[in-house]
Structures are given as structure tokens and as C-alpha cells.
Amino acid sequence: MSEDLERDLGLYATITISMGAMIGSGIFVLPALGLTKAGPAVIVAYVLAGLVVLPAALSKAEMATAMPESGGTYLYIDRAMGPLFGTVAGIGAWFSLVFKSSFALVGLGAYLLLLVPLSGGLVKVVALGLAVLIVVLNIVGTKQSGKAQAVIVTAVVVALAAYVLNAGFAVESARFQPFASEGPDGIVTAAAFVFVSYAGVTKIASVAEEVQNPDRNLPLGILVSMGIMLVLYALVVAAVVGLNDPEPLSTTGPNGGPSLTPMADGAGQLFAGFGVVAVSLVAVLALTSMANAGVLASSRFPLAMSRDSLAPQRLARVSRRFKTPRNAILLTGGLLAALIAFVPVVELAKLASAFQILVFAIVNVALIVFRRSGVDSYDPSFRAPAYPYLQIAGVIGGFALLTQMGTLPILGAAGIIVGGVGWYLLYGRSRTDREGALGVILARRREEEPVSSD
């Protein structure tokens, strides 16, 4: 089998794949949850979460131009800190992305119920059907998947812009008072829970090997999509807060919890029944887009790990006909379907968010290691600004948010770490003997230590 992937993703497809991994639950499901934790200041929480993500986004943009290969987070951490850390990052990032995609597809159910009277069981069947469609689309070709992503994301952004513009004439200023009703702690807690909304910004780095002119398109794609989503999230969440009474928004969801359809609730205030139908259709498109981007990016983690002998070799096989990593996509699709069918993915989404925060912090450390090592092979065409202060701020901000996630998500992230270490010790350690850039730094320090004499 050929192991060459085709570079057929242009700048627009790069931007829309990144945005597609962000436009979904962050806008259509999570605002009401954030409102219960921060009050109307949930708007600030979304901005804060984006600012904490920004250092890792800039760090990944730099490393992607130095290593424009499939693997993204796994590849950078592995090459910087060695295969043990790389294994933990690869498995964790793969799981968290698939969790997020599962959450997106199951989240379709709440919006589908606004369109047609489906039973809960049938909603899962629809989600499984969409999962199969997404897997097939990814196997047929990255170019086709990228084109579909571009069309869907463009339509969703236009619809969201129309939503915000119309909301400007209907919001009630009284609903923003008191603004920070839960205080600064509530804002930080809400930022931790909505952090996963931005996690997709760097996922385009996972398919860097399939991006045209990666030196230009990768950093531009990451930074442009990040800037657009930071503004879009703030505007859309402000519209949701201003259009809805806080009480029903906080209590009309499952088991008396937050609403899972806050965008549709607001649309009802604007356009009555027609608005609910329109926004529900847009939500279905957006959540499908998020799941597609998640499968596209997450399937490249087992591909990259297989190439490095940290996963079975068959996962590195690339289809001669479609030039896509078929086996890695099928494995990812199998996990996606299993989560949809058997697991309460809404809870697991919190675990995904916790591990994403941890991985993003480690990504900033990886960039510092590369810069400090001075290895000749590290030659990026884009340099992250304000080094190392921006990266240090990203690490501190990430761990500050992680402390707000609660015990269960932190334990879940710890469990994935233990599982990754176990996989490396049982499978990967005997198959690889390379060192990362961190090994270069440690070797240099050993050489510089004075030899003591008796």
C-alpha cells in the first residue's frame, strides 16, 4: 500500500475544517450550561476560554510549519518530549476528539426532536447513521470531506450572522443584569466547561500532510478561524442571553437542568415556529460538521502513532484508490459508533474538555522544549510571538481552568494518562528507541556538569 497522502486542502478548506471542529456544541448546546455557572457573564467566559486557547494555537501553528505531517498534537509532543509523552498525548487526544464528535452527534437528538416527534431510540439510530455516513465520506477522500466541510460551515456562519443581526432588534437589556451574578469564580468555572468549544481550532494540524502550501495555509488557517470564532461565540452567546428568560433557559433541559437547545429557544422569540425549525436545521448541519471534522482529525492520530511503531502497522496503511488512511478511519468510526450506542456522551464530553485543557498546556511546554533544544531539524517558517511568556501564560491558564472541572473529569483525564503509559510500556517501548528534543537538552546538561574529583 502507498503511504503518501494527497495535498489537496487549500486555505479556505483549511479554515473551514478548523471552524467546523468548533461550530457545534459550543454554540448550540453549551451556552445555557455556561449561564447557570456564570450568569450573563458567560459571554466573558467564552472570551476567557478563547484567550487561554490562543497560546497553544500559536504554538501549534509554529510547530505545524516545522513538521507538516499527519499527527498534530501527538507528533509535536512526541518529537519534543519523547515517545512516552507522545503516546499519552496521542491516545488522549484521539479519545477526547472522538468523545467530542460523539457528543455532537448525540446532541443532534435534542434538535431533531424539535423537527420531528422521534423516540429516543430512533434518535440514536439517526446519530449512528450519520456516523456511518461521516466515516464513508472520510474514507472516500479528504478533498471530498473538505469540500463538504466548506459548504456546511459557510452556510452555518451565514445563518449565525443572520441570527445575531436579528437578535439585535429583540434583546432585552434587563436580562444582562446583574451581569456577573456568580462572581469571578463563576466566570472561571464556566470558561473551563466551555473550553472544549475551542478545542477544534488546532485540529487542522492533524491533517497537515494533506494541506497545500502548509507554511502559509496552516498558520493562517489556525489564526483566522480562531479570530472568527472568538467574535462569533461572544456575539451568539450574547444574543442567546438577551433573547431568553434565564429561568426556563436554566431549567427546561433533561431532569430539570439547562436547556440543550438554547439557540432554538432564542429563535422562537425572534421568528416563532419558523425560527425554531430554521435554527434546528442549522444545528443539525453544524453538529454534523463538527463530527466530520473530529473524525477527519482524530483518525490521523493512530496513523501517525503507527508510523512511529507505537500502534499496529496496519493503521498506517493508506488506500491506493482514495489516498486516505482507511484502517485508522475505520477504527475511529468504530469507537464513535460504540460511544453513541452505549455511553452517556454528555458526561464524557466533560472528560474530553478536561484532557484537552491538559494537552493544550503540554503543547506550550513542547514549543519551549523545541526552542531550547536548538535541534537543526526544527526549522519553522512561522514563529509564535512573545516567546516564552505567552506559552508560560498558556500553561498557567490551562491548569487554572483544570482545577475548576471537578473531581470526576480530573480523575478521567488521569485515567487516560495511566492508560497511555501502560500502552507504551507494554507495546511501544520495545519497538522504539528514539529520544525527543528534551533528550538533547538533558544530554547537553550532562556534558556541561563538572566532573568531580576525589
TrEMBL record:
It comes from the Archaea. The keyword Ribosomal protein does not apply. Its main location: membrane. InterPro entries: AA/rel_permease1, APC_superfamily. One of its GO terms (cellular component) is plasma membrane. Coiled coil: none annotated. PANTHER family: AMINO ACID TRANSPORTER-RELATED, INNER MEMBRANE TRANSPORT PROTEIN YBAT. This is APC family permease.
